[in-house]
Amino acid sequence: MALYEHVFLARQDLAQAQVDALAEAASKIITDGQGKVTKTENWGLRSLAYRIAKNRKAHYVMLEIDAPGPVVAELERQTQINEDVIRYMTVKVDEAEAGPSVMMRKQERDRERRADREGGREGGFSRDGRDGGRDGGGSRPDRPRREEEAA
């Protein structure tokens, strides 16, 4: 049997449960044809480079498949019929990728960067020079307090 990566884009207005059901239906087609799905990754709702069928975003799902060619042809036929899938692509690969795909590693790297960026502002001063309101007044430490503020 050959190894394939099958990626499909589902419409943006679908709920996550419906996207999971589409992935499960694709997995069932593969297993019914004596193949197996080695990995399923949901890449989430992502922006498209251009509008496709009036959609600006789509749910991305990737399946790593170990199956014979006719099973993959049947999967593509069923995917093409489904109105909830706006694009799909199946690529034959030499070997399965160990661990998470590049897209999943990128998402985790982005999450770490956001956490570092948000965490770095909590302890220090913000861009406008204020200390985040730790003293209750939000005053600048280099400015002396006026009499009415002190009272």
What does it look like?
Strands 2-3-1-4 form a 4-stranded antiparallel beta sheet. It is built from 4 helices and 4 strands. It is of the alpha+beta class and 151 residues long. Helices cover 37% and strands 32% of the residues. The model has no long low-confidence stretch (mean pLDDT 83).
Helix segment count?
4
Q: What structural class do the secondary elements suggest?
A: alpha+beta
Kindly state the percentage of residues in helix.
Answer: 25-40%
Q: Write down the overall mean pLDDT.
A: 83
Largest sheet: 4 strands, antiparallel
Strand order of the largest sheet: 2-3-1-4
Gyration radius, in Å: 25 Å
Query: pLDDT below 50 for ≥5 consecutive residues: which ranges?
Result: none
By oligomeric state, this entry counts as single chain
Q: In one word, what is the shape?
A: elongated
Distance between the termini: 81 Å
How do the SSEs run, as a string of H and E?
Answer: EHEEHEHH
> Roughly what fraction of the amino acids lie in strands?
25-35%
What is the number of strand segments?
A: 4
